[in-house]
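Milestone M4 deliverable, item 7.
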Amino acid sequence: MSYGKVGSGQRLDGNLVETDLHGNQLKKIQTNGGRGYHAVTYDGYLFYNDRDNNVINRITQDSTITEFLKTGDWEPISIHSSHINGDILVGMIKNREAKVTRYNEEGREMQSIQKDNKGQELYIYPHYFTEYLSGDIFTSDLFKNAVVVVNKTGQHRFSYTGPRSGFYPYGICTDILGHILVCDGLNNTVHLLDQDGQFLSLLVTPQQGVEYPRGVCVDDESNLYVGQRNTNSITVYKYLQ
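Output delivered:
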């Protein structure tokens, strides 16, 4: 099962589109989510954020939609399904605050990450994230212009701020070798980092015909999938030999 997002203008809403491996549309679900607002679990559930009602919904493979949890007065803007333990990570904002909250598979809150050891806010707009095998959480924060990394207990490890020319981080994932892959929406590239945030190379550049990269993921065969804004397309690359 493969889900992708189709953009719909300036407002952060859109559709969830299911396709087959050839790009043929199988299903489309209208939502009011935004970028980074859906996740698919290993057992085939699709989670997505209802930002208007501060709710996380769950969709089964037979398209049954149920309410998974409510986030109170926090607006859910991003979501990630952990392939380590099945937990659900949700990025949320409220007024001038932001946090990442961990829920178990039953929707019970397990952890809330908001500030560092000095009491400083870790996040401003945590709109994409992924989890490493060690439990580290890598968060693309657009308004901080950084990838913010905390360990499994929520302690700040480091932040990656990209090239000197500027950096707008969007979609992020990790691969089987422990690399971090993150879209740079300012320079229209995909960065390859090691597990400690050291820059290794650019995987995708504008010379390869990619514009406005927003979503990124890899599969077990080392194929790199890059979703692009406003083109309704996903480009697939072979990036590991």
